[in-house]
Amino acid sequence: MTATARVWRCSGLRWTPEGPALVWDGGRRSPLTRGKRVAFAVAEGTTRRCVGARGNDCPLRAAVSGRSTGARCEECARLDRAHSVAADTLADDPRPYRVYLAWFGPGMTKVGITAAERGSARLLEQGAVCFSWLGTGPLMAARRTEELLRAALNVPDRVPYAEKRAVRAQLPQTGIERAREVSELHARARALPAWPESLDPAPCQVVDHIEAFGIQQAEPAFADVRELIPGGTLAGELVAVAGPDLHLAVAGHGVVVLDTRLMTGWDLVTPQPSHSGEPIIPVRKFTSGSANRQDGLF
């Protein structure tokens, strides 16, 4: 990195009413429109640093793993989670919450909750291909409903991102097919006894994000980036965005998925023209039996 190179630090991807955008430290946003060229390099000789917690910098500026999607050291991760809804430390939160069913692909439906004021932003952030609300009510009623579905119907509250990415190339072609599992599970959920009285049930109205993500119009991805490394570069045409993932058409390789959470904590710069000896970027191919196999780009 030269003395005059401008350094950028990414705060992650946000879904706004105008669409997805990369957010940079300082508040600047880069809208992510399909067809846009995305290119960056990790500054030479740098180390990925903890991004801190709850808007505060990490006091130790601790080094973190390149594969960590949270980009936080152990202490900052603990502090961040302690103040989250998932930690159940906000039982007296007066805001209404919504329970939802989210579908990511065949056999991949989960139950979750989100603050009603956030609308469907949480579903876009998770990369839900389609979803339906189950009901709205106080936080603890929403939590009890979530637990009811896990216990009675064996519905998980998490789906690993790696599984979401790998299945996107095999999604059903029609909205009716994509909505089927959510519709069926919604009916089974509403038929359960012991439904919390303070939760106002919602009718099944499946919302499909396939157009918002642009997945069907894009060439299927063949791999995802496992981590960024000092001196590594990545450049490609943006063909789809799903959750935190950018689907980039990389010249000579095909479509590669980049989880933008891997960008946080790094010093990023404008890439220089390619040169011999350029470091590889580890990727994992979406092929059967190769869950732990790695190859390189560039």
Description:
The protein has helices at 74-82, 121-126, 139-153, 161-167, 175-190, 210-213, and strands spanning 10-16, 19-24, 29-31, 37-42, 97-105, 108-115, 130-137, 200-201, 207-208, 221-225, 233-242, 245-250, 254-259, 268-269, 281-285, 295-297. Residues 289-293 have low confidence and may be disordered. 19% of the residues lie in helices and 30% in strands. An 8-stranded mixed sheet has the order 14-4-11-12-13-10-15-16.
Which features characterize this protein?
16 strands; eight-stranded mixed β-sheet
Number of helices: 6
Strand line-up across the major sheet: 14-4-11-12-13-10-15-16
Number of strands: 16
Distance between the termini: 19 Å
Strand content: 25-35%
Q: Identify the overall geometry.
A: globular
Radius of gyration: 20 Å
N-to-C SSE string, H for helix and E for strand: EEEEHEEHEHHHEEHEEEEEEE
Taking all residues together, what is the mean pLDDT?
Answer: 89
